[in-house]
Specification:
Strand 2, helix 4 (87-96) and strand 3 form a beta-alpha-beta unit. Strands 3-2-1-4-5 form a five-stranded parallel beta sheet, sandwiched between helices. Helix 1 (3-21) packs parallel to helix 4 (87-96). It has six helices and five strands, in the order H-H-E-H-E-H-E-E-H-E-H. By secondary structure, the protein is α/β, with parallel strands linked by helices. The chain is 40% helix and 18% strand.
């Protein structure tokens, strides 16, 4: 099984477990769910979102997962499309944010985005770029962003040795892909 399928299946299962056991799904601030020593890049990411997204913008979030950072996008009042390859993750996003009129969530593979060229003013990605083929993803980002569009992302891109060690340990344990 290729790495993309391994990761897709992992996220499908994790999201399904949440859907199966949770009667009420609501937004949880991701900073409250992680150790404080990891906060800095994500705090900066949120600060940039607040500074560089206008209510008139059309924003694409790729690799949205369960919507951990989607709330911060919604608060900008821009028109948001949140995408993820996991159907169950998208169900969680749609459930948590069902009353938000500036959000659409849909299943999409970041390597093959189902959008017209030059559609989005802003593209957001938080920690998901390493799950796909980098060249394909960059080509898709360039294709769907408008001229002078903005890319806002935070990702270790496999350059953090602690991240790599952690991923390798999970790979050995059969919980992650190797890439």
């Amino acid at each position: 099984m290729n790495d993309e399928l391994v990761e897709q299946n992992r996220y499908e299962l994790r999201a399904k477990q949440i859907l199966d056991k949770s009667k009420v799904l609501k937004f949880k601030n991701p900073l409250n769910e992680m150790p404080i020593y990891l906060h800095s890049p994500y705090e900066k990411f949120i600060e940039i979102i607040n500074s560089y997204i206008d209510p008139s913008d059309y924003v694409l979030e790729i690799g949205a997962g369960k919507g951990e950072f989607t709330e911060f996008l919604i608060r900008t009042k821009a028109n948001i499309i949140a995408t993820d390859i996991s159907t169950n993750s998208v169900k969680i996003v749609n459930t948590i944010f069902k009353d938000r009129n500036n959000l659409t969530a849909q299943v999409a593979d970041m390597e093959y985005l189902p959008f017209e060229d030059k559609t989005f003013d802003v593209l957001i990605c938080c920690g998901s770029l390493s799950y796909g083929d980098g060249k394909k993803i960059i080509n898709e980002i360039q294709r769907v962003l408008k001229e002078n569009g903005r890319l806002i992302l935070v990702d270790s891109l496999k350059n953090n040795p602690i991240y790599c060690l952690n991923r390798y340990i999970h790979y050995i344990a059969g919980r992650r892909s190797i890439s």
